[in-house]
Design goal:
Length: 226
Amino acid sequence: MFEFRFYEIWRTPEYLERLAHGLALSIGLTSAAALFGFTFAIGLALCRRGNHKGLRLLASSYIEIIRNTPLIVQLFFVAFGLPMLLDYRWPFALSALLALTLNFAAYYAEIVRAGLDNIDQGQHDASMSLGLKKVQTLRLVVLPQAIASVYPSLVSQFIFLYLTTGIISELGIEELTWSGRFIADRTFRDFEVFIVLSVLYVLGSVTFRLGLKLLGERMFPWRTAS
């Protein structure tokens, strides 16, 4: 009969420190990629809806390429392909951040675009009649409503990205999955280690979801009231 031996993990301070460090790194990379990716995604969404044919085609091509290739392929291209093409070297952690950001941006761009498409033309007309310029209308009226309408989808995509960050362990980045594999290789208690990893990922996801829910309520109070 199989015997659980979680104490093989708890009794070594180094293992606990690696798990804590890995969890912090996973959360940090995911949060940074979300912030940068969301900023880039707004630009992509606006290009896709704009009148400039070249920018529309460029944004659409980028989104389709990213959404139809695996994240691990994008990760290896950024980590190994770009340095060869551009003749530069930087830490794998930055390569992972860039790959996650580019991936995040493509998915977020389509979500934001859907939100923009749902805004009634009357909102634009009313803003213009009040004397707001086009940029002001977009920034103060259209974008807040568009983002509020798709906020749950943005949160779900964020959680999904957080759960896939284990892929970056293939570059030797000491995030949560890498830390678990490090411990399993030394204790030979793979089952227990990956149970612990699952619990940590679940706790991280639930914490992110609750935190983002509270953030959404503060940013879009009218949505909560309705």
